[in-house]
Predict the structure.
Amino acid sequence: MSAALHQFVVTSLLLLVAAVQRGRIPTQAYHGQFALTNGDPLHCHSYLSGYISLLLRAEPYPTSRFGSQCLQNNNIMGIENICELAARMLFSAVEWARNIPFFPDLQVPDQVALLRLTWSELFVLNAAQCSMPVHVAPLLAAAGLHASPMSADRVVAFMDHIRVFQEQVEKLKVLQVDSAEYSCIKAIVLFTTDACGLSDLAHVESLQEKSQCALEEYVRSQYPNQPNRFGKLLLRLPSLRTVSSSVIEQLFFVRLVGKTPIETLIRDMLLSGSSFSWPYMSIQ
């Protein structure tokens, strides 16, 4: 791919997710040490609950803004709306990571490696958190299957991938995961030692353990009558990878970026961040 074409693709994605800038919650990066602040939404005065508070504040915009404007009159999402919502969720994952504690302090190659490996899991979590409507026909259209002749086997395969995606989203919705739990789960997913080439595995592992401890403490204090809740939440994490990143690319992003791998764009989005000039562009 030529440099000009690559830049065009990157710009197209960045312009699309610029829609999230309208009505965003102001955020700021938290580096290194942090302290508890007044108005802690968890009402729990501890180091770990302060950590969760900062994870929550890193969310770029309210969950309610994810898809409320993307539904058509019949509550079915059109192809363009699917692309817009998917771009918002991808941007949200990257922007959230940029602003959570400790992640900005990692070496840039480590940040890129972590996001490239986990973006699809973060995408599934965001989809569940915003109760993303999933409809087979628009997804198949978004995957480009209606634009060219398709074999029965290919249709069956995509239907199966869509079913797996729906199952993961629905299982999380059944658990009624709250915002604090989602933030901790996403941090546990992000800080994984499975990423290749990390410069400090022990540090990343400690951040994952910190996130897991924060989730355990929060669940114990907020859901005392659900002693198995923490375990149920952790058991959902391995199954997130059953929805492969290539499938998510094909279902949600092929219309937007063509054959350009999402992993190729992650670094551009990560490094551009708030320094990019975000004009507002709505999809008609």
Remarks:
- Residues 8-45, 67-73, 276-284 have pLDDT under 50 and may be disordered.
